[in-house]
From TrEMBL:
One of its GO terms (molecular function) is metal ion binding. Gene3D superfamilies: Cytochrome c-like domain, Tetratricopeptide repeat domain. Residues 268-340 form the Cytochrome c domain. This is Cytochrome c family protein. TPR repeats lie at residues 142-175. Keywords: Electron transport, Heme, Iron, Membrane, Metal-binding, TPR repeat, Transmembrane, Transmembrane helix, Transport. The chain crosses the membrane at residues 87-107. InterPro entries: Cyt_c-like_dom, Cyt_c-like_dom_sf, Cytochrome_c550/c551-like, TPR-like_helical_dom_sf, TPR_rpt.
Amino acid sequence: MASVILLGVIVLVALWLVLEPLRRGQAADPDAAQRTELLEQRDVLYGELAASGDDTRRPDLERRAARTLRALDALPPAPGPGGARRLALGGAVLALVITVIAAFTVVPRWQLASLDATEAANVQNVLNLPQLRATAERTGANADYLAWGKAAFDSGTYDQALTAYGNALKLDPRQPVALRRLGILLLTRGERTGQTLGEKDATQAALLVRTAAQLAPNDAESQLLLGFTLARFGQSQDALSALERYRTLNPSGRDADELITALRTRLQQDDPALSVYAANCASCHGPAGAGGIGPNLRESTLTREAMATIIRQGKGAMPAFPTLKDSDVTLLLTLLEGWQKAGK
């Protein structure tokens, strides 16, 4: 809204600069009275000189006429009839300059205001790319490469993002953002280009993403991209754990919802133990055992026997499950033991 108001003000100022000189007409002459008096004196003296002939008064008349002419010459020139037009032309030029400036400043912001926040950010990133790229290539600084890479990645200009993050990692190979984004770009390049991704390239891409997650375990994007990468390689359980971790770090994040649902369904179908867990335990302990209302089962140090007792008899806020089949309890205990070992 502020951009629209500012644009309206600029238009009004431009119109005023063009029309005001024309409205005022010819500029006033501040020396008009003196100029008129001197011109009248000059005309009178010229008349007397013409009638004097060889009269003895002639030398005096000539001196007075000369003084009058010098006084007229000393006055600044009177404004001509084209003054208003010149002022209007100057106003038009100034208005054009203001309009051009607005076209590259106010108008783009006005157009961005009609987009949602994500679209506006992407458009702004695209507009900034040439300058960010030129700066990075000129300075060769790590921060400039990262700024270029971020703008390119966020705007979907992935070829530039690959170049920018690759150059940043040459300067410092332990940068989580550059590592994970370069890894996911390499991993998904085949989908964008239609080319088949080789096993070596896929392994390298996965290594980059894993390394980034190890360097920044509490970064939401690290866990998100790790989850996508593990799912791509068929490691459904580890992928689900990473994506659940992502949701814990970023509760408002919705990027992994569909994949999380698909992984849960796949795991429950493939693993009967997970089916039992999903039906009886996930509502309190989380879909991947990472905790919720109940504690994190992956960090538990209970023995198999202690866990079996709690399942059957309950403990504290946890209800008992006395009717659970022995075979289902066995499946649960094996699953929980596996989670405990993976968490050590």
